[in-house]
Give the backbone structure.
Amino acid sequence: MSNKYAPSQIFLHWLTFLLVVTAYCTMEFRGLATRGSWQGFAMIISHFSAGSCVLVIMLSRILLRFRHRSPAILPKPPHWQTGLAHLMHLAIYVFFIVLPTLGILSRFYMGRTWWIFGIPMPVSSNPDPDFADTIADWHETLAPYGYWLIGIHAVAALAHHYLFKDNTLVRMMPSRRSRAKTSD
């Protein structure tokens, strides 16, 4: 068994990170764009696009978890740490599936055209703006908790690397390509 995750898992992990950063940045910085401007429109489309990609990638990552076993953590951590890690991963997966799903449903039930990567998405034939607003409120209320999940996840990975001196962080890092030495 390998001491690292499969390359596809590593790639999707870091792609998820970049897309989550994009989704959060477009949310946080949307106020810098004038409402109704092309910049504001670009922020909104970027937010919808990144969030939708996060949903698809998180579902793909679940499938990959069934296909590839997780590499062992060496030295082996105490059972309580392993249990806590599993709970944290479950929370991250559920959160980053539920949050974009709520965002998509709020747009769908609003009944107005919305876009992912510039492509118009379907809307409900029976729009319900009140329900859409409620779902959007849930989406906006839950979103800040993502900062905590990401922060705890990152701090735990760094603690494993620097304090516990195990291979937890290294298992998810991309491999460095070996460079052929050239003679002068």
Remarks:
- Residues 179-184 have pLDDT under 50 and may be disordered.
- The first strand starts at residue 115 and ends at 116.
